Amino acid sequence: MISFQEAREIVLSQARSFGTEEILLDGAFGRVLAEPIRADRDYPPFPRATMDGYALRYEDLHRGIRGFRIAEVLFAGSQPVGRIGSGECYKIMTGAAVPDDADIVIRREDVEEGKGRMEVGAKEPKAWRTYLNIARQGEDLRAGELVIEKPCRCEPAVMGLLASLGYDTVKVAGMPQVALLTTGNEIVEPGKPVNPVQIRNSNHLMLEGALRRERTRLKKYGHEGDDPQRLNHLLQQFLLSDILIVTGGVSAGDADYVPRVLEELGVRRLFHKIAMRPGKPTWCGVSPEGGMVFALPGNPFSCLVNFALLIAPYLHACWGLERSSPMSLPLNEGRRKRTQLDEFFPVRMEGAPATLTQMRLNSSGDIRLGMQANALALHPSGSGDLGVGAEVTFYSFV
Ligand code: AMP
Ligand code: MG
């Protein structure tokens, strides 16, 4: 049986591109940028007043001039009509362009304003210098400078940056066609009557939610009972997707037909079973058309963990995103080791300084799914019980 790390490496080594597409910036939130981004001009594009005040020549102050005639009032977005001479100033607002005949902005609160004039205090404060309260043209970015080099997610800051740079469309990584097949005779859709031994289908909407968080939509969904012929028939169509996720029917039970049927259909097995918990029975392969197949044990928590630790990293690798490395923090409550496997358990990182709090979860069959967890912590194989304060590796969900 392979380790979790080996399984992850195998999955990541199968990463492939789903092409790129040009989309409106308006719809790019959460997508992965697939083009290098350069500054179209200097930023700031002009010397910008960072305070409300008066723009004038530093040299005048230096020479002892303390009274100035207000020649013009400059608002953000306005340009001066004339120029100032010695003993003159512009009244200027934050965000306005400082004309090139001024090189210092004196704050409004540091002067006395009278009729068309203003006076600064007699003594020259140490802080006075050229470019005081002025953000210089190009001090953030130079025209042509590379701002984003590698694929990155269009998070709010990236959206803001792209808008500033004038992009109205962007090239982003293409999306895979994803199909999901849930299996199991006992599974009933929510809203339908259940008898005492039936279970409601939670994997469908849970995995659809997990995909949506990755901005990926399900192209195809189906449910099938534990019937090898019917599974064979349905899987034939489902295998035409870029990614197929199957849940249930991969363990060693008499009704677990999924691995056999997948192999009959020519899916090349990459591995079956990982030395981890939950998720031990996981089966993974590549379809004859090159699609990636993840067959997950049916327990909802196993599906959630598999998605977070294998499927999401696979998607990220396909989009060219850099691997997020695991982090570590101390546990604020001890944990018993239950198996010889790598055990993943739901935690919430919180507090300052941050620690990991374990979320309540009985077993991988617990429908609470470690609710409110924002990470999965690893209790590694070969280690004993974890004490309070033990430093634990975790994989963040967000
Ligand atoms: P299996 O992997 O098919 O042996 O299923 C393991 C456990 O997960 C069983 O208790 C199933 O009833 C449950 N299960 C399987 N599929 C689903 C599903 N779609 N939603 C909720 N529970 C499921
Ligand atoms: Mg089953």
If you had to describe this structure to a student in words, what would you say it looks like?
β23 (342-350) and β24 (355-358) form a beta hairpin. This protein is elongated. With 398 residues, it is α+β, with helices and mostly antiparallel strands. The strands form seven sheets. The chain has a six-stranded mixed β-sheet, with no helix packed on it. The chain has a six-stranded mixed β-sheet with strand order 16-13-17-21-20-18, sandwiched between helices. α1 crosses α7. 18% of the residues lie in helices and 28% in strands. The structure holds adenosine monophosphate and magnesium ion. Adenosine monophosphate binds at residues 182, 184, 186-187, 199, 201-203, 247-251, 253, 297-300, 365. Residues 184, 226, 248-249, 255, 298 line the site of magnesium ion.
How many individual β-strands? 26
Give the rounded overall mean pLDDT.
96
Adjacency order of strands in the biggest sheet? 7-4-6-5-9-8
Instruction: Report the portion of residues in β strands.
Output: 25-35%
Helix content: 10-25%
- Our measurement of the CA-to-CA distance between the termini, rounded to an integer number of angstroms, reads 29 Å
The poorly predicted ranges are none
The assigned structural class equals alpha+beta
Largest sheet entry: 6 strands, mixed
Structure ligands: adenosine monophosphate, magnesium ion
